[in-house]
Amino acid sequence: MTISLFSSSFCLLFFLLSPLFSAATHSHHQPRIATHNYRDALSKSIIFFEGQRSGKLPSTQRMSWRSDSALSDGSTMHVDLVGGYYDAGDNVKFGFPMAFTTTMLAWSVVEFGGVMRSELLNAREAIRWATDYLLKATAHPDTIYVQVGDAEKDHACWERPEDMDTPRSVFKIDKNNPGSDVAAETAAALAAASLAFKKTDPTYSKTLARRAIRVFQFADKYRGPYSNGLKPIVCPYYCSYSGYQDELLWGAAWLHKATKNPMYLNYIKVNGHTLGAAESDNTFGWDNKHVGARILLSKEFLVQKVQSLHDYKGHADNFICSIIPGASFSSAQYTPGGLLFKMSDSNMQYVTSTSFLLLTYAKYLTSAHTVVNCGGTTVTPKRLRAIAKKQVDYLLGENPLKMSYMVGYGPRYPQRIHHRGSSLPSISVHPGKIQCSAGFDIMNSQSPNPNILVGAVVGGPDAHDRFPDERSDYEQSEPATYINAPLVGALAYLAHSFGQL
């Protein structure tokens, strides 16, 4: 529902009177009483990625019900594409959302790794599992392998990744069939990850940065959306609806940050406007990166004082004003229980990505001793943190159903998530192969999933805060890597600010 000015003013008044709000406005260095164990949630949000691993699992694997899978990926094209992540509840490796997931995990570490303590090692491992794969996928110049698995055939089966017998077809982009969106997102992922490994593994960091430079050149030189040439393969799953301009801006922003090469700043100055820097789209996720690029570039102006990027502070402020309840430019919808609601399919991805951006922008604003002005309403960094905290708290259980939307966190959480590996008995319990269609009996049953995919955040409730917990309901019950990735940074910040780390 769209919040009216009257009701939002009332909400604002309530916020100001609420002890929760006043708690969130204290100095963020001062430990306070928290309603949630954010440290536990952080730990679980990272463990989740181990449940999504493809390939040969390491001896350190903590999600023990998973086993090796897809060990010959790429062999049909005589390339090694073993590894990486399954994006959600199926067994396909989609390069576009995997790259975005990697960028957001890396950004979480770049911004909040300093307060992650013991979880920092685990966060870096989650990034490396993806970047090792992305290095394989970009090993040949002017070629990127962007998908392994036939989504249509994969979705016709309900089987464990360990049992997969559907075609592991390989799809690529190249000079003749470009894909600037997936290529520039891959460059962003490699560049962001190079920053995450800069201190602990400088050699790996340099390898990632060099590859990011090459991949971005390819993205920029051979322009076009990848869903043109690969439409029957990637659509409707991960079509590039927003075009590729946002990824070129986003990729350039990350390369500027990672390499400090002035050519990227110049690229942004020359191309920013044509790449949509000032557009008013306010959705940040695996498809549209404009808002993320605005926030990222605003730091250069706010903190590094790069005057030529002054406009990005204004662009970032416009996004902030669009989601502040009661602000004159607010266009965001919230459920009656207070959850940001963008769309019925996997809405929680927008909750986690927006919460991350709010906390990150609050950090930049605090460094620059400045605020956001939304048509006469002054919005402070404290207010942004309070809004982000409210969204994360809703996700963790402060909602009308008193249900945590993170599997394994809290006393009540989804039991029947739309996830093949979680819903079928593990190899150790059922060593025999479960055939393609045999699993549908379990998929359609009401029995809880036998394997707990710890830390998985599902698509979440509908616009009226309802959640049926049905395995067949992929819109609400399916977890995805790109839902969890931005949450890692948000939880690290909250755990630290409440003195839990």
TrEMBL record:
Q: Which reaction does it catalyse?
A: Endohydrolysis of (1->4)-beta-D-glucosidic linkages in cellulose, lichenin and cereal beta-D-glucans
* Source organism superkingdom: Eukaryota
Q: Signal peptide span per the entry?
A: 1-23
Q: Which Gene3D superfamilies match?
A: 1.50.10.10
> Where's the active site on this chain?
418, 469, 478
Documented EC number(s): 3.2.1.4
Residues of the Glycoside hydrolase family domain: 38-491
One Pfam family assigned to this protein is: Glyco_hydro_9
Query: Which InterPro entries does the annotation name?
Result: 6-hairpin_glycosidase_sf, 6hp_glycosidase-like_sf, Glyco_hydro_9, Glyco_hydro_9_Asp/Glu_AS, Glyco_hydro_9_His_AS
PROSITE patterns per UniProt:
GH9_2, GH9_3
Enzyme's top EC category: hydrolase
Supply one GO BP term.
Answer: cellulose catabolic process
The record's GO molecular-function terms, alphabetically, read: cellulase activity
User: What keywords does the record list, in alphabetical order?
Assistant: Carbohydrate metabolism, Cellulose degradation, Glycosidase, Hydrolase, Polysaccharide degradation, Signal
Q: Which residues form a coiled coil?
A: none
* PANTHER family in the cross-refs: ENDO-1,4-BETA-GLUCANASE
Q: Which family does it belong to?
A: Belongs to the glycosyl hydrolase 9 (cellulase E) family.
This chain belongs to the protein called Endoglucanase
